Amino acid sequence: MEAPHNSPQTEASHGDPATGAGEDVGPDTVTVGLAVDSPEQMQALGRRLARVLRPGDLVMLTGELGAGKTTLTRGLGEGLGVRGAVTSPTFVIARVHPSLTGGPALVHVDAYRLGGGLDEMEDLDLDVSLPESVVVVEWGDGKVEELSQDRLRVLIHRAVGDTDDERRSVTLVGVGARWAGLREALEG
């Protein structure tokens, strides 16, 4: 796995839909790009990220089907020391994994089938869970940003089509003052 590095400050990283940067570009935004070559490395990235996470963090995962969102979340769960197998919550919408170590619980949400933004998400009570948990939302773009001014967006890009290429390009976009030291925290 490649060490964190700065994304070039190009037109593509400032609002290009292909990069996912969109409106999350500004003075309180930190972007870190990584290369991941296997599912094992994606899970290891999740364990590294878990060292940085604390109660109240909102993590939004974006990527094609099969990009590695749940694999990354499985690594987060391992790193946070939570109970239960972390699997895709597609059919139950959300799963809560309590901590086994006295740390924050992991709330894992799959918003793929939800269309109505935060209004539709209200039934999940994520705003109640957020202060004492780490909330990870797959497919959360345009749906949960209002939960927190500070959030970590994880954009996973993979080759599409008929390919068995396991390489992924992962872009971490830390939005808000909470994420100012993201790059240094991942290197440490």
Task: Describe the model.
It is a single chain. This protein has 188 residues and is of the alpha/beta class. It is 21% helix and 26% strand. The chain is built from 5 helices and 8 strands. The protein has helices spanning 39-52, 69-80, 118-121, 126-129, 182-187, and strands at residues 5-6, 29-36, 58-63, 94-97, 105-110, 133-138, 151-158, 168-175. The protein has an 8-stranded mixed sheet with strand order 1-2-8-7-3-6-5-4. Strand 4 and strand 5 form a beta hairpin. Helix 1 (39-52) packs across helix 2. It is globular, with a radius of gyration of 15 Å. Mean pLDDT is 81; it is low at 1-21.
What would you say about this model in short?
The protein is α/β, with parallel strands linked by helices. Helix content is 21%, strand content 26%. The chain has helices at residues 39-52, 69-80, 118-121, 126-129, 182-187; strands at 5-6, 29-36, 58-63, 94-97, 105-110, 133-138, 151-158, 168-175.
Q: Give the neighbour order of strands across the main sheet.
A: 1-2-8-7-3-6-5-4
- Got a strand count? 8
Cα end-to-end separation: 15 Å
Instruction: Give the uncertain stretches in residue-range form.
Output: 1-21
Structural class: alpha/beta
Shape: globular
Number of helices: 5
Radius of gyration (CA) equals: 15 Å
* Overall average pLDDT: 81
